[in-house]
Design a protein that fits this description.
single chain, mainly beta, Lipocalin, 2 domains, eleven-stranded antiparallel sheet, nine-stranded mixed barrel, 5 helices, about 10% helix, globular
Length: about 350
């Protein structure tokens, strides 16, 4: 198959060739893809990939977001737009097919792209097994488990950070107008719930009688209420919102409302004031903590972004100290660079 050299163009343009005629039903369904070449130091990375047949055509989704798909017989190419921990964005291609044993296998091509140092990204390989999001029995009796402890990103099990989702015109317009100076974290403001859950800080969970406390690093404290209480009428929305939880079997299902406008990540995907999130927190058979999140925000997205995370228990946690952040230094640099007026002028578009 001919490879196409791609740049970071809007996803809406790439999707024009997304749906192709169904030719290989063995692809259909959910896949847990393990890729080498999308993580630092060849660390394995995981991608949630799904193929679905719609009106006789196969459509590809990554994290429940439609992505460009090309097929040639039993082979396929899927484009993944993603970003690294160093805030560089890329469009890479998974090139593969269904193996004889029913699994996926193939290669990861970065299409000649470079890393933040200007060095070529190393291409890699991937394999895929049947997977998909964790299924929750919403009618199951409560069977609470102990989630307490300090949790960190699980080495080799972290998910790839996707850049684009299924946007509405309004949501895409916000992304198109986004500037790095709008990022709240660089001026020491709260990042908002969705971005806070993806920061590279440890997560501490503390159990109480009627609620669970989540502390991101040592800066952002969140409470998930388990007693069915309602949002107080005298309170206002906040960056971390109002969270209530119910145990469905051994999975904690959390709904968060009353969020102030924010971004999903540093690449500018918006979260509106009317958005709410659904999270599934559960332990797998190996003791890893999974935190699957869906962002329901029809103002900005035609399909809810699916943002999964996997964490490992830290058996020797260090003292968690507050992150030093000085907003003065940020505004001083804006002043010295002559960009302070531009910053104030963007107030209407800032979250």
């Amino acid at each position: 198959m001919a490879m196409l050299l791609r740049s970071l163009i809007p996803l809406s343009l790439l999707l024009a060739g997304n749906a192709v005629h169904a030719a290989d039903n063995a692809l259909l369904g959910d896949w847990d893809v393990t890729a080498i070449g999308l993580g630092i130091g060849r660390t394995p990375s995981h991608v949630d990939l799904m193929f679905e047949e719609i009106d006789g055509e196969i459509v590809a989704y990554i994290y429940d977001t439609p992505v460009p798909l090309r097929m040639d017989g039993d082979s396929f190419e899927v484009d993944l737009d993603w970003s690294t921990g160093f805030a560089t964005s890329h469009v890479s291609t998974l090139i593969g097919s269904v193996a004889d044993d029913g699994s996926l296998s193939g290669t990861v091509s970065h299409n000649g792209d470079t890393n933040f140092l200007g060095d070529p990204l190393r291409d890699g390989t991937f394999s895929g097994e049947r997977g998909g999001p964790h299924t929750v029995d919403m009618g199951a009796s409560p069977d609470p488990v102990d989630l307490s402890g300090v949790w960190r990103r699980a080495f080799g099990r972290w998910k790839v950070r996707k850049n684009s989702y299924a946007m509405t015109p309004q949501g895409q317009a916000i992304i198109d107008n986004y500037d790095e100076m709008d990022n709240p974290t660089i001026r020491c403001a709260s990042p908002g719930l969705v971005m806070a859950t993806d920061l590279p800080y440890p997560l501490q969970i503390i159990n109480a009688d009627d609620h669970i406390v989540l502390i991101y690093g040592a800066d952002y404290v969140r409470r998930i209420y388990l007693d069915g209480r309602e949002f107080p009428k005298e309170s206002t929305a906040s960056s971390l919102g109002f969270s209530t939880g119910e145990w469905k079997g051994d999975t904690l299902v959390v709904t968060t409302t009353q969020l102030t406008p924010a971004f999903i990540s540093h690449t500018g995907q918006p979260v509106s004031a009317d958005a709410f999130t659904i999270e599934h927190l559960f332990l797998d058979d190996s003791g890893y903590l999974h935190a699957d999140m869906w962002v329901h925000d029809p103002e900005n997205y035609t399909r809810p972004p699916y943002i999964p995370k996997v964490m490992d228990l830290d058996f020797n946690p260090i003292v968690l100290t507050k992150i030093g952040c000085d907003p003065y230094s940020y505004f001083r640099q804006l002043y010295l660079d002559g960009k302070l007026e531009e910053f104030w002028g963007r107030a209407k578009t800032r979250r």
